[in-house]
Each structure stands twice: as structure tokens, then as C-alpha cells.
């Protein structure tokens, strides 16, 4: 019998809808990520690797063993008005051809960017960064800035990964490279076409200002976007309240995610997210248990 998944703010269910594995730039394999989630009391977890869905099959098998409901997810890199945004797809069908093909194209672009980053660092006198980043990437099919950051930190160029980003990999620094990703409309189309819901990840991180933020949310809604991350490891308490109010006013669902990458690199551990503010409508409020479970074991 099909029944609605109704989760109140006082529910004992522990939900995290934003996490990464070694398939993109996380530190734990999909299996180890699910095991860690279980050890932290997580009941519902979305694996949302950057521009890749290759870890979902392994994650599904471990989710069954750990008695966790896995949400098929992905975090898509988007260019909007010359800015990079991340759009999460939740409850996607990873076999949807336009989604799979689009993600493959983005990954090809990531390799082009990685080569450009290495060239920039080489000019700065830091040699061998591409090989070093590739070694850090391991099984991942893509090389991201985090892999460069881990290599640079391991070579003593900064005290930790977060410091590397500030010193080398952001705009105006030696290893920064501009890149054009897919469009907002394409990302949302891929997600919706696969049966999923599109969510703006960690919106405070983009530092858009009130006017641009309003424009982004309006366009996002018009294109069929479903929600925004209200609770995020990137958000202060004040920003959480701000985005809770915006979600309510714009009639958007609220999501929550730790953006977990691994021990020592994440502000929040899995299972340690604060609750959504009470005025929010959770993105899972109309999900059905049978539908979720069916998708998690495909």
C-alpha cells in the first residue's frame, strides 16, 4: 500500500540531501559514505556528486545493507550571468539519456579546465599539479579544484584545503580559471526530464546581492525549479532564516544538506544538520515512501 512520507520538524528521521563521494571530489567511496551516514544515524541520504552519477549503483547496494533510503542525486555545474552556480537534482533517473549525455559533456569541460589550471600554476612556478591532482582524484572520472587543493596542501603551499582555495583557486589568484558550464535552463530540463526536482545548492555562497538573488529565484521558478537549500553547511543562522523566508515567499520547497566531502574538509558531519525552520515546506513533504524505495534499488 502506497503512503505519503510525512516528516515533521520534530520527526526522528535524519535527512541529508547533499553529499559527495570519491566519484567526484569526496574522500569516501560511495559504500564508505553510506556506512558513515549509517554510523551517524542518517535515515535518508542523497548522493549528489559533481556532474557524475556513476556512484549511485554502488551506493544503492550499501544503502540496502545499512537500511538507509538513498535518494538518487547529482550536483550540476551551471553558468548563469557569468557566474558559476550549482543545481542539485533529487530523485533523478540516472539512465535518462539527456541527463547522462549532458553530464558527460560537462565532465569533458572539467578536464579542459583542469589543464588550464595546471598551466596557470606552472606559470606561477608550481609544477606537476595536473599529475598531482589526478593522483588525488583516484577513481574519479573528473578532476576538480578540490583535487588541486589537496595536492597543493600536501606539498605545503598552504596549511589545509580551505586555505589553498583562498590563496590559489579563487578569482584573482594564480590558479583561477574561468569556465563556461551548462545553462540553468538545460540543467533544470535534464533534471525534470528525468523525473527529478531541481534545487539551488548553498545559495548564500554566490554572494549575489538582493537584486540578483531575486532575479535568479524568479528565473529558476519560471524554468520549473523546485527548491533551495535553506539549511547548508555554507549558511550562517541568519542566512538560514533569510532563505527560509525567501523559500516561503517564492513558493519554493526547502532542502537541507551538509555538502559533506569527508573528515577534515566539511563544516558539518553527516547527521548533524539543524532542523529546517518551521515556516518551510520540506522538499520531501510530498514524496512517497514506495516511490523513493523503488528508485533507490533500481
Automatic annotation (TrEMBL):
<dbReference type="GO" id="GO:0035312">
    <property type="term" value="F:5'-3' DNA exonuclease activity"/>
</dbReference>
<dbReference type="InterPro" id="IPR004013">
    <property type="entry name" value="PHP_dom"/>
</dbReference>
<dbReference type="Pfam" id="PF02811">
    <property type="entry name" value="PHP"/>
</dbReference>
<dbReference type="InterPro" id="IPR052018">
    <property type="entry name" value="PHP_domain"/>
</dbReference>
<dbReference type="InterPro" id="IPR003141">
    <property type="entry name" value="Pol/His_phosphatase_N"/>
</dbReference>
<dbReference type="GO" id="GO:0004534">
    <property type="term" value="F:5'-3' RNA exonuclease activity"/>
</dbReference>
<feature type="domain" description="Polymerase/histidinol phosphatase N-terminal">
    <location>
        <begin position="15"/>
        <end position="80"/>
    </location>
</feature>
<protein>
    <recommendedName>
        <fullName>Polymerase/histidinol phosphatase N-terminal domain-containing protein</fullName>
    </recommendedName>
</protein>
<dbReference type="InterPro" id="IPR049742">
    <property type="entry name" value="35NBP"/>
</dbReference>
<dbReference type="InterPro" id="IPR016195">
    <property type="entry name" value="Pol/histidinol_Pase-like"/>
</dbReference>
Amino acid at each position: 500500500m502506497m503512503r505519503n512520507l510525512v516528516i515533521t520538524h520534530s520527526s526522528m528521521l535524519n535527512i541529508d540531501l547533499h553529499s559527495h563521494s570519491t566519484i567526484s571530489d569526496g574522500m569516501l567511496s560511495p559504500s564508505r559514505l553510506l556506512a558513515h551516514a549509517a554510523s551517524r544515524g542518517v535515515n535518508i541520504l542523497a548522493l549528489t556528486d559533481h556532474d557524475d552519477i556513476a556512484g549511485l549503483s554502488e551506493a544503492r547496494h550499501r544503502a540496502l545493507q545499512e537500511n538507509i533510503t538513498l535518494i538518487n542525486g547529482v550536483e550540476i555545474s551551471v553558468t548563469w550571468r557569468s557566474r558559476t552556480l550549482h543545481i542539485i537534482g533529487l530523485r533523478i533517473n540516472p539512465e535518462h539519456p539527456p541527463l547522462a549525455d549532458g553530464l558527460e559533456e560537462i565532465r569533458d569541460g572539467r578536464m579542459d579546465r583542469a589543464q588550464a589550471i595546471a598551466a596557470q600554476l606552472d606559470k606561477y612556478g608550481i609544477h606537476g599539479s595536473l599529475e598531482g591532482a589526478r593522483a588525488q582524484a583516484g577513481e574519479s572520472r573528473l578532476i576538480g579544484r578540490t583535487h588541486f587543493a589537496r595536492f597543493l596542501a600536501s606539498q605545503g603551499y598552504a596549511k589545509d584545503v580551505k586555505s589553498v582555495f583562498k590563496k590559489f583557486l579563487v578569482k584573482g589568484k594564480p590558479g583561477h580559471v574561468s569556465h563556461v558550464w551548462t545553462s540553468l535552463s538545460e540543467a533544470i530540463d535534464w533534471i525534470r526530464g528525468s523525473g527529478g526536482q531541481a534545487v539551488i545548492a548553498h545559495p548564500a555562497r554566490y554572494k549575489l546581492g538582493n537584486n540578483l538573488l531575486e532575479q535568479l529565484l524568479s528565473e529558476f521558478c519560471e524554468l520549473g525549479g523546485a527548491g533551495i537549500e535553506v539549511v547548508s553547511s555554507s549558511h550562517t543562522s541568519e542566512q538560514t532564516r533569510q532563505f527560509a523566508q525567501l523559500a516561503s515567499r517564492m513558493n519554493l520547497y526547502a532542502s537541507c544538506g551538509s555538502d559533506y566531502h569527508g573528515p577534515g574538509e566539511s563544516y558539518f558531519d553527516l547527521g548533524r544538520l539543524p532542523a529546517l525552520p518551521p515556516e518551510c515546506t520540506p522538499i520531501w513533504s510530498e514524496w512517497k515512501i514506495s516511490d523513493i524505495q523503488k528508485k533507490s534499488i533500481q
